[in-house]
Fold this protein.
Amino acid sequence: MNYNKAFKFRLYPNTEQEELITKTFGCVRFVYNKMLGEKIAHYNSCGELLLTTPAKYKADFPWLKEVDSLALANAQMNLETAYKNFFRDKSIGYPKFKSRKNDRKSYTTNCINNNIRIEDKCIKLPKLGLVKIKQHRIIPTDYKLKSATISRSASGNYYVSVLFAYEEVEIKENAIKSIIGLDFSMSELYISSEGNKPDYPRFYRHSLKKLARMQRILSKMKKYSNNYYKQKRKIAKYHEHIANQRKDFLHKQSRQITNVYDCVAIEDLNMKAMSQALNFGKSVHDNGWGMFVTFLYYKLTEQGKRLIKIDKWFPSSKTCSDCGTVKKELTLADRTYICDCGNILDRDVNAAINIKNEALRLLAA
């Protein structure tokens, strides 16, 4: 069975390549909007879906021939996917027109006859030729390159996400010799069943004053002036810096845990609902728990280890980890768990131990 895996690298195009990439972004957006507009008009006139391809526009708009044709073909596929998603689930919403004001832009091209390849710290891309990249990871030789997505972030940095296909390698599950329970913590990311805390730096919270100052400067500038766009890019760069700090920290924490333990137990939490409750939005998003769980899962899976998710309704905080008594009257204000059996423990450590014990019970079952 084949699996897909993407590697994302920083891209360093020269001036000519930057111009062509920008032109491709515009052509992809134009073709997408043109096809969507014609589909809507055709459906309104006769009630049928219209099938269109980018090729029909090249005669009237010859500048479409200057960019990668596969990028335009992928725009058509993306539009068809958007329609399928809409008909499958109406809550997703009807396909929308793409705006040139969107700060993040991207296009995808496919690998045909080795037209995309990585060599000597460069990547060869259709129409662009060799473009310098920062290759921080080695690609296994048995991986087969499928496609590449070129993107530009709001800060103006370019990236390429290269998709590879590989055959499943049978990884035998390791015998579980060591297990750890992790309880979600709003301020510390997690509390382990051994009482350890990662001392999470809370990057976004510590940057709020500087961000507020930068945004205040932006608000006093003339809209759409050169200085306005310069300041806007500065803010985007700072946001990207914060996101990279968070991602780096979460990668390191998940790697440390994965290297030591054979099994990790966590609660299956609804982070979206939590972010909308009790004004926890900023703290939940700054915490990055969902990203941390994703990193943990794929790192554990690649080593034949396990991630166990405990039911979110399991009373981990209200149960005594020593005798099993459930204290229903326990509130969020109670930070120390005191049981009649004599067990006195930090509330979060007690919850982490209960998560670990429940995972052991599930493994035994």
